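Field reference: sequence -> structure
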Amino acid sequence: MLDPTTVTVLTGADEAGAALARRVVEHPLQLRSPEAPLPAAPLLLVGLERDVNRYLARHGLPLRPAELSATPDRATAWVWTAARPTGEPVTVVSARDATALVALGRPLPHYGRQSWLVFAGDTATARGIWPSRPQSIRLDR
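Structure field:
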């Protein structure tokens, strides 16, 4: 993640989540409590599945997309990107447990061009790129 304004929120398994976040963020972490208001900046959300789901629901952010339901019985972690209605990007890393977060430390930084990933341990079992959205620029006279 190249944007130095990215705010990182850890939801459960904080030690494993912080270690993973440091591997994927190319600047010092700007940590915020999950209890703090939703930041008006790019967001990296890392944590345990149940805690991540609660955070997303509480802030009206998109839950895990249907595309990530591949191999649900073997999946241990899910990663996806989304955009808030105001345009700020959101990157979510959701894992079944701390062990699954630790397992992402080596492979995850190598998937920067992917929009979503499903992992079983340290192996990506499914991945994809969201369709591009046409950009529009409004010109006022």
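Note: The radius of gyration is 15 Å.
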